[in-house]
Task: structure prediction
Amino acid sequence: MAVPAWELDDFDAVDELLASIGVTAAERDWRRRAACRGHDTAAFFPLRGEPIDDARAMCRACPVRVECLEYALDESGDPLGVWGGTSQRQRRAARRHGWSAAELIAKLDARQYSEAEK
Result:
């Protein structure tokens, strides 16, 4: 299920809502700097079984990858889609093991590097 683009790009409304529930400006700012901002959301919210390689590639180059993944790991419940280059399954595993966002990213990046060396 794709998230409508207007929901992601209406930052004034989103900022106002988040501020009203106590989310600081610094905590909200990472979304404005995300590499995915303005891109088609379908790549980040694929249907079951669809590849997420394009989303992961964009996330690997994103300056706020850790903040994005921290958001997803901190959310009550687990947000659908790709966050910080991770799948829901990877985020559940990180929670089970007690890994931080930075630790999970390091593990995934190391695994990708070692697979590329084969």
